[in-house]
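Job type: complex structure
Entries:
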Amino acid sequence: MAVELRAGTAVSVRERSTLVRFLWHPGAAFSVGFLALVVVAALAAPVLPLHNPIVEYYPHLFQGPGSASFPLGTDDLGRDLLSRMVYGARTTLLGVGEALAVFLALGVPLGLVSGFVGGALDSLVMWVADLSYSTPQIVVVLAILSIYSQNETAAMLAVGVLGSFGLTRIVRGSTIAVKNEQYVAAARVSGLSWGRITVRHVLPRIAGPIIVQASLFSSLALLFQTGLEFLGLATHPPAPSWGSMIAEAAQFIVRDPWMIVPPGAIIALTITALGLLGDRVRDVYAERWAPGGVVALGRTRERHQAAPAVVAPSRAAEEDPTSGEAAVRTPALLEVAGLAVVLESRRAEIPVVENVSFELEKRGALGMVGESGCGKTMTVSALLGLLPSGARRRAGSILFDGEALHHYGEKELSRTRGSKIGLISQEPVASLDPNFTVGSQVAEVVRRHRGLSRAEARSVTLELLDMVRLPDPSRVYRRYPHELSGGMAQRVAIAASLAGRPKLLVADEPTTALDVTTQAEIIALLRSLQDELGLSIILISHNWGLVANLCDRVVVMYAGQVVEMGTTVDVFTAPRHPYTAGLLASDPHLVSRADRLRALPGSVPEIGQWPEGCHFAPRCPYAIQACIDAPIAEQRVGAGHAVRCIQHERLVLERPA
Amino acid sequence: MLRSVGRRLLLSVPLLLGVTFLTFLLEALTPGNEALAILGTSADPQQVAALSKRLGLNLPFYVQYWHWLDGVIHGHLGNSAVTGVPVATTLNSHLAVTLWLIGGALVMSAVIGITFGVISALRGGVLGRIVDVVSLGGLAIPTFWLGYLLVLLVAVKLRWLPAVGYVSIGSSLGGWARSLVLPVFTLGVGGVALVAKQTRDAMLDVLSREFIRSLRAWGLASRSIVLKHAMRAALPNVVTLMGLYVVSLLLGTAVVETVFALPGLGSEVVLATSQHDLRVIDGASLYFTLIVVVVFTAADLLTAWLNPRIRSGR
């Protein structure tokens, strides 16, 4: 019950702001206003000061617009066009309304039942829906009209019935999605009936898609209705309707072109209004139900706008903790300094990476660890210029092999990618184009970087596939990604990443999706490639074992910041940040079952909700007031070992020997 | 691949039977209508009854349907109640115009719609905005209104193209093309808008997928990523939409044929509707449904061919 209650209040709190946001938009305001005006005018036509729409004011034929008594002019028989348009709306909108009523009355319940019940009923409904899609509506409607002459009600009811299966399908899909969500499952367990679950949880959730579909259907029905009126199949002259007004005007189009303008314009405007309405509902809905939606981010906006500005200058001036050791090490291949990445929403910038600095030497391997949502992927994406849309590098420099990547535009960055820095990602199969053979994909990359002929590219590709230890490369060449195992797909992805002979390979959790044996093989492969090709590697991983196996240095990230960095040995044996210690203690690969009780409590704060002081303070057993008050600076604690913690001495003291 | 076509054909038979049966069922709800239509509403009731009997209209409608089906298999669709001409002859002579219109509108909406959709997905600026507005407008403007505006502007004022009428492809290729430009354009504008919208949505969806990020990380040129890889992944959605679009085009052809006075299936069936010429409507429902079946099968084949999962025979 508690779960259900929480979900309920969340919706009602958001309700008002959604409606306000919906109308706070020129398109939505126009469409709602316009549609309301048309409907009210149509309903109130008899009491409005209008001429009788079928009375012929004899001498005033083909009168253009602008006169006081006929604002929109008159037609070929001297009838008032404005009045015919308003009265015509009654006929036209009635037809649309009838179709819409049937559309909703059939589509919604059928979709709900089909989604909830499933099984044979569901299959039957979906089969009928398939049939209805392919049924030419015009055939059914004309058959009806040939029997029930001029009976637009019968015709539009049929249009509603045929259209309703499209809605059924959408409602069914949403119902199934909602049905499987946790809070609905919880409500079910707590004994709520299907009826109440539908009213409380499902309907509010699918209201958006239904409104979108209804507005789409209304515009189709309007076109259908006016089309039938135009063809003279649905109305009795001289009674006006929008479609028949166009047919009447068409006869005199050369003599009086104006006549055709008002009815056409009102149809076009009504459909535009319906379209805008549907688009707006869809957009607002998408924002509202998006995971970690903009709404949630929006509330905490003000607090975080200021935070990075306070933090950044002091950090920029901060001494680089590793600079002292630079002389004794080989020169760096990659130097990242003060990197900051923000997510841009309409009015605010939300930091996702703050002041990240690290170095990587030639042939070195750097591990990046930290829980999901700590900014590791964002950091490496920034190196490659592959930040997702909405994210932007706000500050910081990236020096790679003497080149200042942070000054590069998209064009230069795209030349850097693959030829200087390669990337392999978490989901091996999803990272390959499903529609091309893996060989042709790798060959395309080879050709791009080395400018070879097709035949040459093919043989280079086969060499690459062989180099990543794929058995029988020429067979693998012809395979599609879905025909490969995760491990094979990851090898192909590595081959493609190496096609341009990069100096640095970024591996973003390359083994997360793979089984344990394959994980070890991929890491062994990376290790041998590092030796053979003289590669540098950045390995992002949750698995300390893999990091220890491959990397000589480690960067630990938490909530957008580097909290500790040092040699793998130092960090492993003497972690100085409580977060690092907690991560090590909770790694299932490293500790015995009993020790796992020491696992980290709580979870990483959501982006946009980071504390002003130490980001880790809320979860930290050592936190004191000073940790919460102000941002924490990095401190050097040993050769090449730095930590963002003012309590690091206590951690050393309290460690059991 | 065979499986997906087989599935479509399995759906097609019930569709053809269902639509034609539905047509008969609806017609059967008011027996005697057809005889009345032939003899006129002021006819003597005895005459009406006699004619009904002669035409077999007194039989239960499923028997009538069975007879009709039997005829269809032998190539007979009955005779028009109004003109007495065999229905198949009438419809065949009107089929070409409608097929040209549908084909033209499909090609136009595919070429322009996909181009617009891709531009709109990639560009947020002025160009993208213009494409969005055109897409919205294309859906909102009623076909018949646009048709008359074009007739007024292009044919009457500028005299570039003929206003109405059809020239068969056999008599004059140039005349044929000139007679179809305005109708096809009128019919296709809505399709351009639909396809552009669908293409944009599908492209935006594909461009956010993981493999696009990989292709970028490997350093491929954005031209290849967009036009080769993303397009290929987005196309099946567009093809499916175009199949559905043809179903909605059928009313459009009736309207456009009426506006431009073209002798097509649509205008013929509208005429038959106002004359209660039921056999023509039965025949037209068969023709229209067949067109839909052919288009859907083609769309399925194309989608299956575009998808290696289906193509490689799994």
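Summary: Residues 135 and 193 of chain B are 4 Å apart (CA to CA). Residues 90-271 of chain B form a domain with the MetI-like fold fold (CATH 1.10.3720.10).
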